[in-house]
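Tutorial handout. Part one gives the primary structure; part two gives the three-dimensional structure as C-alpha cells.
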Amino acid sequence: MPTKTDWCAIIDRHLPPVDQLVARNRAITAAYASWYLRQPWLFRWAGLAAFASAQVGIGIALAEQLRSPQRLIANSADLPTNPTISDLLGELVGRGGNVALTMPVLLHVTATDQLLTDLLIIKQANDAIFRDTGWAHLAYIYGGLAELERCIAKSDHAILTAFRLLDEGAQLLCKPATFTQGWELVNQVTITLLRHEQMTILPPYMAQLSGIGRLIASIGTWMDFTGGGPIGGPSFPTFFGLPAVLSGIRSIANTTDRWMWIERDLLPTWLAHCAAYHTDGPLARRLQMLAAHWPHAG
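Part two.
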C-alpha cells in the first residue's frame, strides 16, 4: 500500500527538477489548477493556490533571467513571448502599484545579487507549500479520506483536520437539505488550509527576505481571477495603500499584515468568485489556461 513518501514520489515524477525554476513553477501552478477544475465545489484552496503560484511565477521568471541572463523565457500568457528583465519588473509593478513611483527603486536593484537571492527564497517558499499539501490532495483524490488518514503523520495534524472537514463538507453538499451547511464548511476548510500555510510554512521564508525583497513581494501580490485586468482585483498595496507599502509600514512579509489582507480582501473576493463559478465562465477559462502544464488536467 502506498505511503506518504510514495504519494510525494508520484507528484515528483511529474515535476521538472528544482533547478528548472520556471518549468517547475508552471507545473506546480498547473497541478493546483487541475485539482480545482476537477471538483471546483470542493478544492477551493487549490484554486486560490494556483493563482498565488502563478503570480509567484513572474518573480521566478525574473530570477531565472538574473541567474542566466542569456535566457529569454516566457512564464505566462500575460507576458510578452520573450520577456526581458524590464518586462518582468514591469509586470510585477503593474500588478501591484504605481510604476512611476516604484520602477526607479526596482531598476536600481536589478544588478545586485540580493534581488536574485530574494527571488530564490520566494521560489523555495512556493516549493515548500506544494510539498506540504500537494501529496495530500493527490491521496484524497485517488484514495479518499481513509487513504489520507492511513498515510498521514502526526506532524500533519492541521492538514488531516482540514481534509476531514472537507470530506464532511463533500457529503453535506450531496444533499439539498444540507447543501448550504456543506458549502460553508468547505469555505472553512479553505480558510483552515490557507491559515496553516500562512502561519506555519511561509514565516521562515519571509523572515529571510531583505528590505527590497519584502517590497517586491508586497507589490507583486495582485491577482486576476477572471482576466479582467487589475481594476478591482485583490491587492496588498491597494488594501493598505501604496505609501504604506513603499515606506515599509505595511509588508506582505509581516504575518499580521499578510493575514489581515488575506482575511479582509483576498479571501472574500476569491470565495465570491467560487460561488459564481461556471464551467464556461472567465474563472474556469483562466484556470484551464493555468492547468495546461499538468498531465492530469481536466
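Part three, for discussion. The mean pLDDT is 85. The chain has 14 helices and no strands.
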